[in-house]
Design goal:
Structural class: alpha+beta
Largest sheet: 7 strands, antiparallel
Mean pLDDT: 88
Helix content: 10-25%
Shape: elongated
Length: about 160
């Protein structure tokens, strides 16, 4: 005879079975609603992960186009960045994401004066490297952008997406 055969099973909570039955009955009754909710949550996750994400602007560097506290939609599926596009990118030196306008794209040649503005001054000027971008905030006095060494040249790998108009 096994030792488990002598033990009497006791339920610490006599109402536990009744509670479980009620939950099970409610789940069966609302099965369609639960499935719809699960699908909606999964769809929201997929959309925000791969297609569109909402981002909160946290400073005045993009005024007057975008304001502190404004929420913008960011397309994560577009990768053909052009001068004038407003992008969201990771700024690892600052430990945050920034929202800035692309001022120069790969292959752009900057004059010595322009290059000096970005801290890349040479007598020959500067050519933006492949896969890199120089960005500026619309509100120059309030902006931390490519002119600041903590941001500098923005790699295409740092770019989260393009702000949708």
């Amino acid at each position: 005879m096994s030792s488990t055969g002598n033990r009497k099973k006791t339920n610490k909570n006599p109402n536990a079975k009744a509670i479980f039955r009620r939950i099970h009955k409610a789940a069966r009754k609302h099965k369609g609603l639960l499935i719809c909710a699960a699908i909606a949550i999964l769809a929201a996750f997929i959309i925000s992960r791969f297609f569109v994400q909402l981002v909160l602007i946290r400073d005045a560097s993009m005024e007057p186009a975008y304001h502190d506290g404004q929420i913008v939609a960011v397309s994560k599926s577009r990768h053909d960045y052009q001068v004038g596009d407003v992008i969201v990118f990771e700024a690892p030196q600052l430990g945050c994401r920034l929202v800035k306008r692309i001022a120069h794209v790969p292959g752009d040649h900057l004059s010595p004066e322009e290059a000096a503005m970005y801290g890349r001054g040479t007598l020959a000027g500067y050519t933006v490297p492949e896969g890199a971008y120089l960005v500026l905030g619309d509100n120059a006095e309030e902006s931390v952008d490519s002119r600041d060494a903590r941001v500098g040249v923005v790699s295409s790998r740092q770019i989260v997406g393009v702000v949708l108009q």
